Amino acid sequence: MKDLPARRLLLVHAHPDDESIINGATMARYAAEGAHVALVTCTLGEEGEVIPPGLAHLAADRDGGLGEHRADELAAAMRELGVTDHRFLGGPGRFHDSGMMGTEQNHRPGAFWAADVDQAAGHLVGVIRSLRPQVLVTYDPDGGYGHPDHIQAHRVATRAVELAADPAYDAGAGAPHTVAKVYWNRVPRSVAEDAFARLRDTAAGAFPGIAAIDDVPGVVADAGITTEIDGTAYAARKTAAMRAHATQITVDGTFFALSNDLGQPLFTTEYYELVRGTPDVGDGAREYDLFAGLPDAALAPGART
Ligand SMILES: [Zn+2]
User: Which cofactor does it need (predicted)?
Assistant: First the structure.
């Protein structure tokens, strides 16, 4: 039994690669600064497309095996970010990738989209009550861009925060724990617009096409941003983590593409909207630390229960 560090951050994501693309710099920074950074990934991403032709046989409509391969990619990415605590919700393969909205994969037995939210959340309650994170990061109710597994990850994470705090909920899952701050992943529209302008000016030729701003998950008006985490010093780690997801991502300098080959910016400052807890903005307009404003008593080392 080993005490966990005073600051504990839990991130909930849908597929391997989402964490590195969206939060890679944040995760690397907090891990380097001695916080406990834990990742729960809800599916193995079995339905993803495969970029490298040499690995195309792993696709679900070919030989299969992409989920296991992506679990290995995720482990490699976490080594790049310095994150040692990463798990799959309910264990690897417990919930299956649902594919894009409207596909028949959404309704297959075991599909994450078809899972009962309370039942799936129960797995996460155990993690929350064990790690006792002060901060949880997940997607907005639209999953950032409408993918069923991302929407479901939001629902499950949100429900798990409620249940973990409820003393009446399954005593077998550990002592109740209230997560002090919950954040949704965001990108300010002005930052996205500037970055896409730079992409068009400097790197358009590197990609067959360029993504639309609204392809980027979580883009909102700047006023919706409460918190920004400057991970510039961890840019190389984030880039390396994204490269580790080689079946899903190609990186070119400060830009990357998914399997659709459309270039988009790689952000090393990452943005959030605080939706539970009190923002601690000091004299500025934003927070610059996910743990900002938490009382010392909330930041004590935590024993695993
Ligand atoms: Zn995803």
Answer: Zn(2+)
